[in-house]
Design goal:
Order of helices and strands: HEHHEEHEHEEEHHHE
Number of strands: 8
Structural class: alpha/beta
Largest sheet: 6 strands, mixed
Shape: globular
CATH architecture of the largest domain: 3-Layer(aba) Sandwich
Distance between the termini: 42 Å
Radius of gyration: 19 Å
Number of helices: 8
Pfam family, one: Sec1
CATH superfamily of the largest domain: Sec1/Munc18 (SM) protein, domain 1
Strand content: 15-25%
Family: Belongs to the STXBP/unc-18/SEC1 family.
Helix content: 40-55%
Strand order of the largest sheet: 2-1-3-4-5-8
CATH class of the largest domain: Alpha Beta
């Protein structure tokens, strides 16, 4: 198995381990750039075995048919660390809670890819007015295997984050991802050429990380203990 196939299988195992810990039917909500993970990381057999009944997007609150979720107790949200989407998520949870025909407790799981920001945590505390128990999972997913030899970070808003929001966090994540590629192929990039301000920022961060840590320590990490609750 070559390095890229090994990476894909590693990501598949980590994702399945997350899903395995919530038995029964599941409803999945995705940030719009993340739904691709089902088709490129898991296979059809994996999806069928995990009893995935419904898939929705978190930014389309009005399109959600809560009646279709009425008999599903595992509600998983796959999220980027975008604080401005947390309000939408709690609107979805509120709709689900109000439509339930029984008093059963749902499992609400927030799976942040690849990390949860401080602002996300503050927004969760702000909007969770019903004190619903939540489970938070940090899933350090670096790359999406789109084709046999094409892997993508699938980060869509870098220009806005950099120029409008003055937010460098995803650019730093790009540098960490490049460090991971060096780990995967057992060596440093010999030549780095950057075109544009964002590429220059990432390459400078990469060089700094390499000076501080070396190129061979950035293995993919397992998610945090998903039994921990966020109250």
């Amino acid at each position: 198995m070559d390095s890229l196939e090994h990476l894909k299988e590693q990501e598949r195992i980590v994702l399945l381990n997350i899903l395995h810990n919530f038995e029964g039917k599941k409803c999945l909500f995705f940030e719009k750039s993340l739904h691709v993970m089902l088709s490129v990381i898991l296979n059809d057999d994996d999806i069928n075995k995990e009893h995935i009944e419904n898939i929705f997007f978190v930014h389309k609150v009005n399109d959600i048919n809560v009646n279709a979720i009425n008999n599903i107790s595992n509600v998983l949200f796959f999220l980027r660390p975008y604080f401005y989407e947390i309000k939408n998520i709690f609107e979805i949870i509120d709709k689900i809670e109000k439509s339930k025909s029984t008093k059963r407790k749902n499992n609400y799981v927030f799976i942040f890819v690849p990390y949860m920001s401080y602002l996300c945590k503050q927004e969760i505390l702000k909007y969770n007015v019903l004190d619903i128990p939540l489970k938070i999972i940090l899933f350090p997913l670096y790359f999406f295997p789109l084709y046999n030899d094409v892997y993508s970070l699938e980060i869509k808003n870098l220009f806005k984050e950099y120029y409008v929001d003055n937010d460098f966090s995803n650019l730093i994540f790009c540098s960490f991802s490049l460090m991971f590629l060096q780990f995967l192929f057992n060596g440093s990039f010999k030549n780095i050429k950057s075109i544009g301000n964002l590429a220059q920022f990432s390459s400078e961060q990469l060089i700094q990380l390499r000076r501080n840590h070396g190129p061979l320590i950035f293995n993919i990490q397992s998610p945090n203990d998903f039994q921990d609750r966020f109250l």
